[in-house]
Specification:
With about 400 residues, this protein is of the alpha/beta class. The chain is about 35% helix and about 20% strand.
């Protein structure tokens, strides 16, 4: 009977065709819990309103240290998540000896898998770059951009390039021009993207990114600062699904990159809104999973925790997270010192503390649903996550 039951369970899975690898940059367990408890307080109660990610049936925890430090940076962590190899802080797509290592996206793209790489920050930032670039310094943005242009990946989405021109070499091609020469079509904003879904290869950026091809790009706006017409991470994911799903299979890496930015700013209200925005992107993946449950895997994790977020301060046994709804702009958006001070005070009123304005060594959560999701339970190193994804094929 046991053998029969196992055979039935195995036969219930079809061929794995659709993978959503979702990375909340800087998203530790407390960032997730803060978003849930904030929503509960807005409903006038103590507890949590579960996010989509925390409703997934399989849960694990991952270590985040790099080869060179107990506290990783995003380049080393991204490399571990993309390739299964530890490396030194600051290195992308190479091991600790600077030998190139191949990401799952590169490997599977060579085998015919359509690939989408998307983020709420620049498309040449550390985490997305870990899935296509090989450099010994993450600050080599122009070189990273040239490697992006040569990937042949079908879809990129996010902000534009940090350094679209090579410093001290005006004869080097502009990265936007280089991408176009390599067959990429740029869509400037969500509405423009809907008219270009038939492009051979598509790069979706914020509406004003790349209009001036010489202007650096950093990120799309925070959710809390968003204005009508601004590109959002859920819109990028929605577009990617519409673009890639007709191809019959895909691998997507989706980064909620500005959770990390808000953690560096010790900005609780902005951080929570970024987690909620990331969870809306996860919801889109989940709705796709419901339509293709025997062919889809969704894995949600983080590269590291940022800020040392603490829920509870000053020895007081209560939270007041609902106070954060009073904040209408990110701390990076306000200009006056008194406004910065007011946001710091609002954190204190909400009883949210921070131990750092940088990364910490905290473990990060892993949530999974779909084909092979049972492999993601337990406590393991971050290098194991991509290996567990590969084991599903």
């Amino acid at each position: 009977m046991i053998i029969v039951a196992m055979m039935i369970a195995i036969s219930s899975y079809g061929e794995l065709k659709y993978i959503f690898y979702m990375i909340g940059d800087g998203m530790g367990s407390n960032q997730v819990l803060a978003a849930e408890m904030y929503q509960a307080e807005l409903q006038g109660r103590i507890g949590r309103v579960p996010l989509r990610m925390t409703s997934f049936p399989y849960f694990g925890m991952a270590n985040t240290f790099s080869a060179s430090s107990g506290i990783t940076d995003s380049a080393a962590a991204g490399t571990a998540l993309a390739t299964g190899h530890k490396t030194n802080n600051g290195c992308l797509g190479v091991d600790k000896d600077s030998v190139p290592v191949i990401s799952i996206a590169e490997e599977w793209h060579k085998e015919g898998w359509p690939v989408g790489i998307m983020t709420s920050v620049a498309i040449d930032h550390a985490t997305p770059a870990a899935f296509y670039a090989h450099v010994n310094k993450r600050s080599k943005y122009y070189k990273i951009g040239t490697q992006l242009a040569s990937t042949g990946y079908e879809f990129f989405g996010g902000a534009g390039f940090h350094h679209p021109n090579k410093k001290k070499d005006p004869s080097a091609p502009n990265l936007y021009d280089l991408c176009e020469a390599n067959g990429y079509t740029f869509a400037h904003g969500y509405a423009d993207a809907q008219t270009k879904l038939g492009a051979d290869k598509l790069i979706l950026v914020q509406a004003n990114d790349g209009i001036d091809k010489n202007k650096p790009s950093e990120s799309i706006p925070y959710a809390i600062d968003r204005k009508d017409g601004d590109l959002t991470l859920p819109q990028i994911v929605e577009t990617a699904i519409a673009y890639l799903a007709p191809k019959g299979k895909f691998f997507m890496m989706i980064e909620g990159g500005k959770i990390d930015y808000a953690g560096h700013g010790d900005d609780a209200a902005t951080n929570i809104q970024e987690v909620l925005d990331f969870d809306q992107a996860i919801e889109l993946a989940y709705q796709f999973y419901l339509a293709h449950p025997d062919e889809t895997l969704i894995v949600v994790t983080a590269d590291h925790e940022t800020g040392g977020m603490a829920l509870g301060t000053d020895g007081k046994y209560f939270l007041n997270l609902k106070a954060l709804q009073e904040q209408k702009q990110s701390i990076g958006q306000v200009q006056k010192k008194r406004d910065h001070k007011a946001i710091r005070q609002l954190n204190a009123t909400a009883r949210v503390g921070w131990t750092s304005s940088a990364h910490t060594a905290a473990n990060v959560p892993v949530f999974a649903i779909g084909v092979g999701a049972e492999r993601f339970t337990g406590w393991y190193d971050n290098t194991e996550i991509v290996k567990k994804i590969k084991a599903g094929r």
